[in-house]
Structures are given as C-alpha cells and as structure tokens.
Amino acid sequence: MPAPQTQSATVDQVTGTPISYFECSKCGERLDAKVPQTLCPKDAGSLWVRYDLKQVRARAERHDIASRTSSMWRYRELLPDAEPVTLGEGFTPMLASRKRPNVWIKDEGANPTGSFKARGLCMAVTMAKHYGLKKLGRAQAGGRLV
Ligand SMILES: [Zn+2]
Prior knowledge:
Blueprint: E1 19-24, E2 30-31, E3 47-51, H1 53-59, H2 62-67, E4 94-96, E5 104-106, H3 117-130, E6 138-140, E7 143-145
Antiparallel strand pairs: 1-2, 1-3, 4-5, 6-7
The structure holds zinc ion.
The site of zinc ion has 8 residues, from loops.
C-alpha cells in the first residue's frame, strides 16, 4: 500500500524527525504522521512509526553518536526533536548468559525505574511536555498514575 500523498518522507514539522508515515500493526494502513494519533481509525491497531532512514543516516554521524551521553537520547535522530524529560533511561547493558553460550540478556533493571517501561514513560512525558499537556494518565497493572 503506498504512503499517503501528503506524507512523502519529509521532516515532520511537529517533531523535526524524518517520519515517512504511521503504519497500522493490524491492517497495514498507512496514515499521515502530521496528524497526532496513536491508534488506527479502522481497527484500533497500534501504529508503528516508519522513518525515512536515508534522511536519518544523513543526519547522524557515527562519531557524533558515540560521543553523546549514555541514554536513549543518544539516538535522537530516531526520536522526536523535543527537549527530553529524562532520568537517564536507556543504554542498559547486555549481559552474557552464565548458562547458555552466545546468549545475551538485556538488563533493563538498570533503568531508573528498574523496568523497560522507563523508556516509554520517558518518551510519553517528554511529548506531553512538548505538546503543552498538563495532565497525564497511564494504564498500569494494579494502579494508575495520574
Ligand atoms: Zn488498522
């Protein structure tokens, strides 16, 4: 399915990131990334962000990336161009399995919250601030953060 005519691999005016389009994880529908949305209007499928990787490659030099702080924001060319609200999420270590050769385990417990969820929350709070939102809600097993 071709990308919408209005979404031709340009730098997103809201985020500054070279997003080509959103793609529905259920039906494959391609949606305009200029429109803030999180779910497919046809079937409520989650949306994947599809980047223009040629533009990302042109913006990111390997030595620049290596010199940046050790956090998920090191790879900012693939993240929205927003001021991060962060506790230092990401860049968690890979640990060699003691029992299985050639098996590596990502230690997400090294995140500030002790969970992989820290990455998504960092991005959610960053974008909420970016859009000027004053209240946040988040579904969570056993509780709700407001
Ligand atoms: Zn869909």
